């Protein structure tokens, strides 16, 4: 019998996620009027990664009509055109998404996509990856954080929280 080496997916330590978001919220507070709407978008995208475990492709391709900012329900189109729904229960994230929508309403309506770039087109996967790299570097985080690592982190922390919850309930 030989033991297979189990390689666990790379996750982002909670402190680094917190540090990154704190840095991004700091940028948001200092942003000029012209940059503010894009900072809102970037914070919303990163928060959405962590809150939903969505793929970069799914976030980039969210259609405007598939986001209900009143209920927090978002329809994602996944691999193989599979659709699934995620519920945003975090009220501050929902408030952030509403602010973003208000600031970018015209471009969103014209493009049909919820997340838009500075030219009013869909915010592409590549642009999201570069944005994440930029903020990570600015925040002084050495780890190469990728959008997919948020997916693994989301799953890992969800399981950890469930295990904590069930062990607390058993006590």
Structural commentary:
By secondary structure, the chain is mainly alpha-helical. Helix content is 59%, strand content 7%. It has a three-stranded antiparallel sheet, with no helix packed on it. A hairpin with a 5-residue loop joins strand 2 and strand 3. Helix 1 runs antiparallel to helix 2, helix 2 crosses helix 4 and helix 2 packs across helix 6. It is globular. The mean pLDDT is 90.
What are the key terms here?
6 helices, 3 strands, mainly alpha, 171 residues
Walk me through the topology.
Layout: H1 14-30, H2 33-52, H3 56-60, E1 67-68, E2 73-77, E3 83-87, H4 91-111, H5 125-138, H6 147-170
Antiparallel strand pairs: 1-2, 2-3
Question: Averaging pLDDT over every residue, what do you get?
Answer: 90
Beta strands, count: 3
**Could you state the order of secondary-structure elements as H and E?**
HHHEEEHHH
Which shape, going by the Cα principal axes? globular
Strand order of the largest sheet: 1-2-3
Task: Describe what is shown at a glance.
The chain has 171 residues and is mainly alpha-helical.
């Amino acid at each position: 019998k030989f033991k297979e080496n189990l390689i666990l997916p790379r996750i982002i330590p909670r402190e680094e996620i917190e540090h990154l978001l704190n840095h991004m919220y700091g940028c948001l507070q200092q942003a000029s009027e012209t940059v503010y709407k894009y900072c809102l978008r970037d914070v919303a995208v990163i928060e959405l990664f962590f809150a939903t475990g969505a793929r970069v492709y799914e976030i980039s391709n969210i259609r405007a009509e598939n986001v209900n900012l009143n209920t927090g329900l978002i329809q994602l189109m996944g691999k193989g055109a599979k659709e699934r729904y995620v519920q945003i229960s975090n009220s501050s994230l929902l408030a952030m998404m509403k602010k973003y929508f208000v600031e970018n309403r015209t471009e969103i309506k014209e493009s049909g996509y919820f997340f838009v770039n500075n030219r009013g087109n869909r915010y592409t996967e590549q642009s999201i990856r570069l944005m994440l790299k930029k903020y990570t570097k600015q925040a002084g985080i050495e780890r190469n954080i990728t959008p997919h690592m948020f997916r693994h982190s989301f799953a890992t922390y969800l399981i950890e929280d469930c295990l904590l919850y069930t062990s607390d309930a058993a006590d």
